[in-house]
Every structure is written in structure tokens, then in C-alpha cells.
Amino acid sequence: MPRITSRDNPRLREAARLIGSSRDRRKAGRCVLEGAHVIAAYQARYGPPETLIVAESSLPELEVRALRSGVPESRTLVVTESAWGELAQIPASVGALAVVPTPTSEFKRAGDFCLLLEDVQDPGNVGSILRSAAAAGVEQVFLSPHCVFAWSPKVVRAGQGAHFQLEIYEDVDLAAWADEYRGRVVAAVVSNGESLFAADLAAPVAIAIGNEGSGLSAELRDAAKARVMIPMPGGFESLNAAAAAAVCLFECVRRRGHRADG
């Protein structure tokens, strides 16, 4: 198993390039996973990563040892602290990285519980939304062309493994998709909508969440079957996109009467 002391190693250079460039990630069809928990979630669904990169100081950790046991030594790099420190944008607490092909889903049929994200641009918001979606039992998430890349390191980090429980589709014309959906598309809005708690949320349903500043486009609002507002008795103007998505999704869960243990 190679021990890497310099960033000049080709596989380490590739990881650094993918971490630093969304364009390179899209072009290569690869992404970088950060942290043993996220890598383990990927490995459970797809198998070993193309490259596992481990900080030398993390070798004794149980999670890292478990990861290494499932990855061929030829695919594993152990990196010294000095070389690890040259990897930009990686939090100090992250002891393992993996380079993997960006997972893709073959679309066959829209699910009964879907989420539409239109132009949501903050990576932390998108990651948090995906995490809520996975927890709520959403089947499919559709992102508009101007959303942040779902497989960027910051989004994957915030998602904490949620990506691997969802079908994720990017660069989707959401208004056109909504026109063809067999169920109800419900648009979350800040005004001129009915209460979320009174709206028809029966499956099949797709919840639409818009941009952090401007909300949903007129085209998607018009394509939706319903517009809903989250009641805010505190009088504050609005919730952030991630919080609004969580409230809407778990109201759907509440209506379906799921127990806490699933």
C-alpha cells in the first residue's frame, strides 16, 4: 500500500483537482467523498471506491480500518500529514477521502414522493435538503440547471450519505417535468398560497422548493397544482430553503401516519 509524502502523486493530484473544480468534476464524471461515514455509505451501495485516500494519522480509527478492509490495497493511498495539508478545502477533522464515479440514476418513471429544487445555490442548503429528503422517504430529487452541483464536496459533506438513498437527477426542466407528472406538484411559496397544514398532500406528490432569495419561478408556480405557505405565527418573513423543505416533507410524512420507527 503506497505511502504518499508529496502531492505530486498522480492520484492525489487528481483528487485535489476534483476537489477544487466543479467543471473538472462534471467533465470527468467523478466526485470526491469526504469522511469515513460518507464513504462507507457509498461502499455499501456501490462497492469499493476507485481510490481511497487516508491520512496517516487516521489509520488507527475504527471506521477507517473498516473502510480499508473492503478496498483493495492497490486502490488505497496513505498520505502523510504534510501532503494531506496541501489538499485545499478539506476540514482538518476529515481523515479519509474517496474518488468515485459520480453515481447516476436511469430515469424510468416518476415516483410517488418527489422533490423539486429550483436554482437552490447554497451547497449547505442542498446537502441538508437531501438529508431531510432521504430521512422522509423521498424517492427522487430533481434539480434545475442552475442548482449547485449535487455532487460537489460541500453538498456531499452536508448530505452525510443521503445521496446514496435517493435517485438524483440534475439539469431538469422542472416546469416541463411538472406538466407531465401524474400526481400533484405542490409549490412552496411565501405569499398567495393555502396553509401547508390544510393542503392536499396525498401521494403521488412532488414538493417544489425555490431559490433562497427569489423563490420559485413563475413558470414552475404556474405548472404546480397547488401553492402552499408554511404558517409562521411568529411573524418572521420566511424560513431558509433547507428548513422550509424539511417542514414540507415531514408534513407529508405526518399525513401518512408513519410511526417513529418507520
Fold and architecture overview:
The protein is an alpha/beta fold. The chain has two domains: 3-101, 2-Layer Sandwich (60s Ribosomal Protein L30, Chain: A); 113-255, Alpha/beta knot (3-Layer(aba) Sandwich). It contains ten helices and twelve strands. The strands form two sheets. The protein has a seven-stranded parallel β-sheet. Helix 6 (123-136) links the parallel strand 6 (113-117) and strand 7 (140-143). Helix 1 (10-20) crosses helix 2 and helix 6 (123-136) packs parallel to helix 7 (153-159).
Report how far the terminal alpha carbons are from each other.
42 Å
Amount of helix: 25-40%
Label the CATH architecture of the largest domain: 3-Layer(aba) Sandwich
The count of domains is 2
Strand order across the biggest sheet?
Answer: 8-7-6-11-9-12-10
For the record, the CATH class of the largest domain is Alpha Beta
Q: Shape, please? A: elongated
Number of strands: 12
| CATH superfamily caption of the largest domain | SPOUT methyltransferase, trefoil knot domain
In short:
This protein has 262 residues and is of the alpha/beta class. The protein has ten helices and twelve strands.
Q: What are its keywords?
A:
19% strand, elongated, 34% helix, 5-stranded mixed beta sheet, 60s Ribosomal Protein L30, Chain: A, 7-stranded parallel beta sheet, 262 residues, alpha/beta, Alpha/beta knot
